[in-house]
């Protein structure tokens, strides 16, 4: 039976909190996963009173949940879990004592401190928590990406928070790891003999991992223009997915074993420098385009700036230099304002070694395993089969389909809900170790350096398309093409 816990969210009125965290906690409440006595303590810097905070939270829920998920009677119950506190994190004043009084009534209770604030104030937040003795042996710190800007800044952040929390009590979130299909990827690989036997360079031709988004800047211009797609998406989400596809079977499914295997993959990524970066990566930036007839502005117009070389799209070819994956290209791609919203992993198997049906039976397609995380969650395998509608021997690709929305009609996954409840229950297996963050940055940093040192600028693509032509050309070099869904 789960225990009640206190979750203190620093950045209580921020975008992440209102868009993701409060809705996730509301879902947990609706699904009876918030044990009575659990408190959601939202720390807000702006001088709101309790009622106006509750109004803000109710509005956010109505905006970010589906209509059937939100109801006024349930909100009335849920709001008794919410405890806004007015606090300026950076100022060490008596309001920290007020937080201490609120929490000290139950010193044994699990405390989850969630830093939904910029990393620049992680240190001072931990320092103030420590100075009012709020960090107990039952306390956990949850931190969000972006964890730094490069290897050096990430190390500085990790060193700073390590002054206050042990590594096993630091929960670095990558919300992609909380998506159910991502966890299913491990289940699929490590509980089915048929896949694992073929999961290597002998049978796999190449792998594609693609996260396409239709949204643009969403009011995050300042952050995004400094970060760009490589830092915002590839350093974390895409590399984490690559790790789960490529890693060896962990000895157990605990955090230590899984993280150790992921680190080995990151360390085996072939480093790219100078010309190699230019030959194996494509940067893009969107210009105005349209979705179903509706015109959307280009990146620079959204940014309200005449110039920026920030990439809103990146495609790259990576290699993992180890026995299992030698010479298998891993294509990674992500972008804003692309044609459709989709996150997908495609495992393309090799051609059969010898064709037994003659050409009149039609073309042969290699087997493909498609693991879709978004918009719906599914796993599909394409296999060649006989076309039963035709008396002649005609071949036709057929799809073996595991569509989870058909199987689990009541099920609505929420990565943040999953990860918050895991943090409260001290289940660290879906969180990221400090060394993973470092290894990922060590691979990303030289790519950014080479881009900065080259005179090249991002290739332009129209909003509502699959990115610049150069991205297709990158795959065409090896006779491949993107499998675009939607
Ligand atoms: C975040 C990025 O980590 O992930 C955003 O900062 C991006 O730019 C988001 O939009 C995508 O997450 P999801 O779950 O909507 O695919």
TrEMBL record:
Show the active-site residues. 237
- Gene Ontology terms, cellular component aspect? cytosol
Q: Which family does it belong to?
A: Belongs to the glucose-6-phosphate dehydrogenase family.
Cross-referenced SUPFAM superfamilies: Glyceraldehyde-3-phosphate dehydrogenase-like, C-terminal domain (SSF55347), NAD(P)-binding Rossmann-fold domains (SSF51735)
User: Per UniProt, which keywords does this protein have?
Assistant: Carbohydrate metabolism, Glucose metabolism, NADP, Oxidoreductase
Q: Does the keyword NADP apply?
A: yes
Q: Which domain of life is it from?
A: Bacteria
Write down the EC number: 1.1.1.49
Which residues does the UniProt record annotate as the domain Glucose-6-phosphate dehydrogenase C-terminal?
Answer: 186-482
Recorded catalytic activity of this chain's protein: D-glucose 6-phosphate + NADP(+) = 6-phospho-D-glucono-1,5-lactone + NADPH + H(+)
**What molecular function terms (GO) are annotated for this protein?**
glucose-6-phosphate dehydrogenase activity; NADP binding
Function per UniProt: Catalyzes the oxidation of glucose 6-phosphate to 6-phosphogluconolactone.
Annotated residues for binding of NADP(+): 45, 88-89, 145
Q: In which pathway does it act?
A: Carbohydrate degradation; pentose phosphate pathway; D-ribulose 5-phosphate from D-glucose 6-phosphate (oxidative stage): step 1/3
Protein name, please?
Answer: Glucose-6-phosphate 1-dehydrogenase
Q: Does the keyword NADP apply?
A: yes
Q: Which Pfam families would you find in this protein's record? A: G6PD_C, G6PD_N
Looking at the record, the residues that make up the Glucose-6-phosphate dehydrogenase NAD-binding domain are 8-184
GO terms classed as biological process: glucose metabolic process; pentose-phosphate shunt, oxidative branch
The entry marks the following residues as binding substrate, namely 175, 179, 213, 232, 336
